[in-house]
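Input structure tokens:
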């Protein structure tokens, strides 16, 4: 990390649901153009953390800035620089792929061209298909295209390739590498170790709501004295990480 102002700065994030502490004093600094992976078992606090960063969920304590903006106070400004793709897409089922892309492009002053968005996610031949008729993997890819519509400078992706076949998964990896080359800052929540090792500059390791480490993948492997990132995760958390269904 350099002394450059971080693209994302989260300090002392805390969130409780009833008696359960989902996120406990998590802090992250993500440099401009960095790809940060977030690893953890189900229930480790990954999704709650990224929802607080995105301004979709208010922390009980702590603060977040995105490019110097507060996602709670500066909502309109943050929407112009932040793209978010979460696991569950809630889109109007009767609208076609083209209609949804046109709708989202209308939210931004200088959106990516529709054809480019479709090409980035491999849905060129699905323009006229209604959302409800897409497969789960195709709906996932469309959600990613919509997150990219406004040319975001910061992008949050929650389980980028869950439900995608191997060909579509590798296409999405190539898209992320292209965005990284464009200087986009990316936070990637993932269960897929190969994906994390290929795409991420550093990995934030969460366990039971607490941040255990933030290091490059190779450094985590070395710290654990492991053969690979999967083994390092087990060694550092005592838990097996299963890929999401």
């Amino acid at each position: 990390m350099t002394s450059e102002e971080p693209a994302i700065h989260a300090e002392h994030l805390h969130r409780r649901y009833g008696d359960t502490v989902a996120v406990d004093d998590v802090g992250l600094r993500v440099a401009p153009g960095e790809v940060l992976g977030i690893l953890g078992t189900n229930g480790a606090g990954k999704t709650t953390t990224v929802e607080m960063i995105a301004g979709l969920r208010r922390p009980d304590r702590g603060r977040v800035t995105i490019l110097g903006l507060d996602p709670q106070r500066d909502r309109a400004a943050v929407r112009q620089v932040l793209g978010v793709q979460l696991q569950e897409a809630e889109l109007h089922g009767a609208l076609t792929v083209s209609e949804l892309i046109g709708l989202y492009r209308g939210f931004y002053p200088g959106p990516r061209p529709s054809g480019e968005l479709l090409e980035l996610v491999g849905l060129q031949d699905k323009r006229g298909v209604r959302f409800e008729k897409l497969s789960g993997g195709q709906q996932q890819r469309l959600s990613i295209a919509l997150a990219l519509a406004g040319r975001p400078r910061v992008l949050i992706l929650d389980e980028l390739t869950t439900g995608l076949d191997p060909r579509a998964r590798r296409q999405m990896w190539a898209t992320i590498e292209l965005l990284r080359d464009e200087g986009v800052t990316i936070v990637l929540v993932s269960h897929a170790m190969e994906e994390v090792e290929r795409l991420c500059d550093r990995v934030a390791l969460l366990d039971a709501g607490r941040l255990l480490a933030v290091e490059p993948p190779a450094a985590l492997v070395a710290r654990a004295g492991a053969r690979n990132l999967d083994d390092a995760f087990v060694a550092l958390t005592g838990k097996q990480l299963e890929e999401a269904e």
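The first strand starts at residue 8 and ends at 17. The chain has a mean pLDDT of 91.
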